[in-house]
Amino acid sequence: MTVDTATPASPMQAHCQTCRLNSLCLPLALGLDALDDFDAIIRRRAPLKRGEALFDATTPFTHLFAVRCGSLKQSVTQAHGEERITHFYLPGELVGLDGLASGGHPGLIQALETTAVCAIPFAQLDRLSGELPELRHALYRSMSRELHDDRYWLCRLAGHTAEARLASFIIDLSHRFQRCGLSPTRFRLPMARADIGSHLGLAVETISRLMGRFQQAGLLRAARREITLLEYARLAAVARGETPLHE
User: Fold this and answer.
1) 60 and 164 within one domain
2) How far apart are CA 185 and CA 173, in angstroms?
3) What whole-number distance in Å separates Cα of residue 121 and Cα of residue 42?
4) Which of 79, 223, 234, 245 has its CA 20 to 30 A from that of 184?
């Protein structure tokens, strides 16, 4: 699969200067002149439809992508042929950093809903970051955050109960929605419960059962994919394994 990088943004398209997510993406802390230089290398492609692939494991690494709106999932095929979802990406987050070391991507990236991304040619980004130390630091921060998140999830998935895994997932989503300017206590899950189960290593029936238990305990309210957190502190305690729920 080849990456469609589209064309430079037209005056009618969004620009970094006016994007509400520019404080989350790589333009963080750039001055106006530097922001113009960064904006000049961005390619904004047509939005992806639900289920459409951004790239797959056969795509060579040439670009990073910043999610403008919508959401994406990354899946890999394991040795025994089972597909496992490894990441979800929300607005303001960078996609593709894991392709830098190998020159390729470890899995398939698909849109969970209508999703718009900014394509950032890495060769031009690398050159520009050499001229703009603040851009280089922002890139390092993004890499560090991804490493931190990966290690966090390894810890959460290893040795934690099913209820702690799901509670951690919901708390993590709350933090990420808040970071991109949305409500941390009322949000819509862009992914299906089967996707959540694949990500957490749990059966979809387990996800549904635990959602029911969380509601019965008064921790949250779930109406299809709409989630309202009612007892954030208690849910966070469940995520840490401090307050297990009992049948």
Assistant:
1) no
2) 10
3) 7
4) 245
